[in-house]
Design brief:
The protein has about 750 residues and is α+β, with helices and mostly antiparallel strands. Among the domains are: about 145-295 and about 425-540, 3-Layer(aba) Sandwich (Rossmann fold), CATH 3.40.50.200; about 545-575, no CATH class; about 655-740, no CATH class. It has 13 helices and 34 strands. Strands 1-17-16-19-14-21 form a six-stranded antiparallel β-sheet. A hairpin with a 4-residue loop joins strand 4 (about 110-115) and strand 5. Helix 9 runs parallel beside helix 10 (about 270-280) and helix 11 (about 485-505) packs across helix 12 (about 505-515). The longest helix is centred in the C-terminal third of the chain and has 21 residues, at about 720-740. It is elongated and about 180 Å long. The two termini are about 100 Å apart.
Length: about 750
């Protein structure tokens, strides 16, 4: 939940608030109408003196030892018999008119001088005397910021991508970051433990809670090489003094996770935004948290008093805006109106509690507005009971027209106004030159939905806020689990340091790079919910190639797939060849293939098969030699496929000879040639038979014949029918032989 830092604000505790008011009851029933309400009487105050401080001095005059809660209600800081107060000069007069000599004559010791106010230790018995000095315009408790922490979550530095910068030796070297906060407790211990490795100009008066120290730890986690300067800006004057030193300092980034109420109407004016602008003139970028503003905690409207009774009408005649408080605890109602320049209107805010059947006044804010009193009132209870409360606004000097007003509720996260509004950032988040940061819980980082408590724009003058979203949590030594927009802002401050180192850009230019690299979370980015998007440090500005310790595939010099390891520098190592595998390739780049196995995958060898002819063996999966396989049948007169037949896939078996019928009808011979095909039918020699055996067109040529047969060395005799029978039988035998091989 949003918490108020120690010594912040001016609200009174419940038991003492009645001393600040009349204790009057307003109205007879629920939601009283204007004619039923009368404004609580305002006691006259001393000129130039804060009204609550004036009443406290009145109590002291009556009781030398008043209830200690008076000091608590004013959040006064004591030093012996003196208290810390803020002094402003007369309207229009420079701060130099408040001379140290005149102040020291009254026992006043100046602590710090801002640009338009100073802080000083003022003896209690001299407070009225100081307020009466001609040079003094106003005396009040110092204006202090409000911290913006939230509910506990987990850490989230790695989500931003900062670790990828770190492993490429980008750590924010050469960048100086000032962390501004009212509370810097535990800073020295964090330095001693190494949580804050690089610091400079560390003052001796650090103290308070660990809020600012936790912010510094986050900056150091994000940018461990950046130098961090803690600046304890407990008051507005202290902040102004710091900014005044920037021309003589080398500060690049300012991180502040606080917000101020009642110094401007959120339109980039007022002393805080002037400080931001002055810092920008010196080249320093101001990063601020948007603030933890829960749903139902803010209202925006314009002055409306149709019956002119002095009470603001919230609508339909209701002059009380109801507030439901579920759990007991602190409750602060903060009202301001858009009159910071003219100071013409004077409004009071009153807080009521519904009791049985009537509204009971429990707290009020009723300062007299003037040139040195900002248009801001607060009514606060430190121990508010649960129940129904009501807020009313009374115009001691009503605005002349429809002047804009706003209410901010600070209390439990479940407190809820019956009518709420969106937007309206507070200082310094509302300032034009501020890099305003919203928060995303780690569990919602990928989805990109803003934390429910993360404040947002638009500003009262319509500008987009926030600029960027960052992780909402971190684990710190000073605060343990540290959560809220307070944790988000230092993430961005550290990220700027990394971008500055990686790109060589100035702080101002680094902002543009960071916003350009942000991951948009909506189609209409930038918008008033998540700005330009989620913080995402782009590796394009680094040499980052991989996550340290990761492994990945790569191609070796011999074209095998090896592995590389990501080194501490987030660069890949050289590609390491794998062990030799049964792949048919040279995996280990030694020039040999599958050398650790029986054979190389796919390699073939000749072998003798079962029928004692040549076969083939192949290296199989696992690089084991397979059995000797028969080959396809060849034209060689052998049985390659071991089926008992020779050259059976061809027309004939190589070298086989068969009888055939010649072209002249004689019985010739044909031989199976090298292609395993039959040769032409060759005729026989001429025989004595009365026919043309050798197909030369002559019958029994070269033979002599007589009545007894043929002569000339050939057998004689034989009837023609005998020759025909022999020839026919030869042809039939040849046909049978051919059919066998078809």
């Amino acid at each position: 939940m949003t918490t108020r830092a120690l010594q912040l604000g001016l609200g009174a505790v419940a038991a003492l608030t009645l001393l600040f008011t009349t204790g009057a009851r307003a109205g007879e029933g629920h939601r009283p109408q204007s004619q039923q309400m009368a404004p609580p009487p305002r006691a006259p105050g001393a000129s130039g003196l804060n009204w609550r401080l004036d009443r406290w001095l009145g109590v002291l005059a009556r009781d030398a030892a008043p209830d200690a809660r008076w000091g608590e209600s004013l959040h006064l800081e004591r030093y012996g018999d003196a208290i810390r107060l803020e002094l402003q000069p007369r309207p229009g007069a420079p701060l130099q008119t408040l001379r140290n000599g005149a102040l020291e004559a009254l026992g006043i010791r100046v602590i710090v001088r801002g640009t338009d106010r100073l802080d000083a230790w003022v003896p209690i018995d001299q407070i009225r005397a100081v307020a009466a000095l001609d040079a003094v315009g106003h005396v009040a408790p110092p204006r202090r910021p409000i911290g913006t922490t939230g509910p506990i979550e987990a850490a989230g530095v790695a989500l931003s991508g900062a670790d990828r910068y770190h492993c490429t030796s980008l750590v924010g070297d050469g960048v100086n970051i000032a962390v501004l906060d009212a509370n810097m407790g535990g800073f020295e211990q964090a330095m001693a433990s190494g949580e804050l490795p690089h610091t400079f100009d560390v003052p001796a008066n650090l103290g308070g809670s660990g809020h600012g120290t936790a912010c510094a730890e986050i900056v150091a986690d994000m940018a461990p090489g950046a130098a961090i300067r803690p600046v304890r800006t407990e008051t507005l004057a202290g902040l102004q003094y710091f900014v005044g030193t920037l021309p003589f300092e080398d500060i690049h980034v300012i991180s502040q996770s606080e917000m101020y109420l009642g110094l401007s109407f959120g339109n980039s004016s007022g002393p805080i935004c002037k400080a931001v602008d002055d810092a920008r003139e010196e080249g320093a970028v101001w990063v601020a948290s948007e603030g933890n503003i829960w749903p139902g905690h803010r209202w925006l409207g314009t002055w409306n008093d149709p019956d002119q009774d002095g009470w603001h009408d919230f609508g339909d005649g209701d002059e009380i805006l109801e507030l439901s408080k579920v759990s007991p605890g602190s409750l602060s109602i903060n009202l301001d109106w858009n009159d910071y320049l003219t100071h013409e209107a004077d409004l009071d805010v009153h807080l009521y509690r519904w009791s049985v059947n009537e509204w009971v006044l429990v707290a009020s804010g009723e300062a007299t507005n003037g040139p040195l009193v900002d248009p801001y009132e607060d009514a606060a209870l430190s121990g508010a009971m649960s129940g129904t409360y009501g807020i009313s606004i009374y115009g001691q000097k009503p605005p002349s027209g429809a002047m804009a007003m706003r209410i901010l509720v600070l209390g439990d996260d479940k407190d809820s106004l019956e009518e709420t509004s969106e937007g309206a950032s507070y200082d310094p988040a509302s300032c034009m030159n501020t890099v305003t940061t919203g928060a995303i819980a780690p569990s919602d980082w990928e989805a990109g939905s803003a934390a429910v408590y993360s404040g947002h724009g638009p500003t009262t003058d319509g500008r987009t806020k926030p600029e960027i979203m960052a992780p909402a949590t971190a684990s710190t030594q000073a605060m343990g689990s540290f959560t809220g927009t307070s944790a988000a802002a230092p993430h961005v401050a550290g990220a700027l340091a990394l971008v500055m180192e990686s790109t060589g850009a100035s702080a101002v230019d680094a902002v543009g790079i960071l916003l350009n690299d942000a991951a948009p979370l909506a189609e209409d980015a930038p918008n008033n919910q998540t700005g330009w998007g989620r913080l995402e440090l782009s590796v394009d500005h680094t040499t980052w190639a991989c996550a340290s310790g990761a492994t990945g595939p790569c191609q070796t010099t011999c074209d095998s797939q090896g592995s590389a390891t990501c080194e501490d520098s987030c660069a890949w190592s050289s590609c390491e060849a794998p062990e030799e595998s049964c792949s048919g390739q040279d995996d280990d780049c030694d020039g040999l293939i599958d050398e650790t196995f029986e054979c190389a995958l796919g390699e073939t060898f000749t072998c003798t098969n079962a029928c004692q002819t040549e076969g083939r063996a192949t290296c199989l999966e696992g690089c084991n030699l397979g059995a000797c396989e028969t080959l396809e049948e060849l034209c060689d007169g052998l049985d390659q496929d071991c089926d008992g037949a020779l050259d059976e896939t061809f027309e004939c078996a190589l070298g086989r000879e068969e009888t055939c019928v010649t072209s002249c009808g004689s019985a010739g011979s044909s031989v199976c040639e090298e292609s395993c095909g039959w040769s032409e039918c060759s005729p026989p020699e001429e025989r004595c038979g009365g026919g043309d055996d050798d197909c030369d067109g002559s019958v029994d040529e070269g033979l002599s014949c007589d009545s007894g047969g043929c002569q000339g060395g050939r057998s004689s005799g034989g009837a023609p029918w005998l020759w025909l029978l022999v020839t026919t039988l030869a042809l039939l035998g040849r046909q049978v032989a051919r059919t066998r091989f078809l």
